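Review session, final week

We close the course with one last complete record, chosen because it touches almost every idea we covered. It is LytTR family DNA-binding domain-containing protein, a protein from Aliikangiella maris with 257 residues. Go through it on your own first, then we will talk.
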Amino acid sequence: MTNKPKLRALIVDDESLARTNIRYSLQEFDHWQVVGEVNRGDQVIQSVQTNTPDVVFLDIKMPGLDGLTVCQQLQSLDSPPFIVFVTAYDVHAVEAFELCALDYLLKPFDDVRFHKTIQRVEQLMFNNQQQTQQVAQLKAVADDHLKKLDTLIVRSVGRIQLIDVDKINWLSTAGNYVELHLDDQVILHRVSLSHLEKHLPVNDFIRVHRTAMIRLSLVSEFLTLADGQYAAVLKTGDKVNVSQTYKEKLLLQLGIE
């Protein structure tokens, strides 16, 4: 049990003895930490924002605001804590669970019942933490993969080509395909330009038109054409249209004011 991360608890009850009972009960669990105690319902939100508890042990009948109202307010926070109601009144149990209470302890409770509450809280808390960590790890792996994308797999009838991203000079749309413009050939890839925009190295390629992306390092000229249109000339000799929508971003990337 000692290898578990600390769980932070806030105790809310207008009776000093009730707060003491919960505090002493939590002391049996070395991975629990009481970060605050409050005796009025209208002080809970501020205490939660200050002490950032994982769990609030919350009485229902209190001065200021009752516990059910406090619970509703807590649910509006970006990261609300879990709620365990601790009360002498069982008439509010259904409403409490409808407000997403994790458990409902009736006073006076014994050690066995309190241990069940702790087990329920820990099971949910640690499962949530593991799921959050797994999602974060998967996202990190995916982000890292996208940042390091260096090869495109292009499939065609009877053929699979591995295209080195470093060899792509620019890209343009062609119906349901994207044309990959290399030095010596143009390769059709069945994918959207928007999809590639999300996956290609952001420091290497820039969107210049709804139909085109170019390698930034290959730009040799920026042209203002007679008809009010714009174009980028690449070192390969290719001239790619630049729309008004993307002009400013391109000029900024080129260091042109």
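Two points worth writing down before the exam:
Residues 79 and 182 are 49 Å apart (CA to CA).
The mean pLDDT is 84.
Good luck, everyone.
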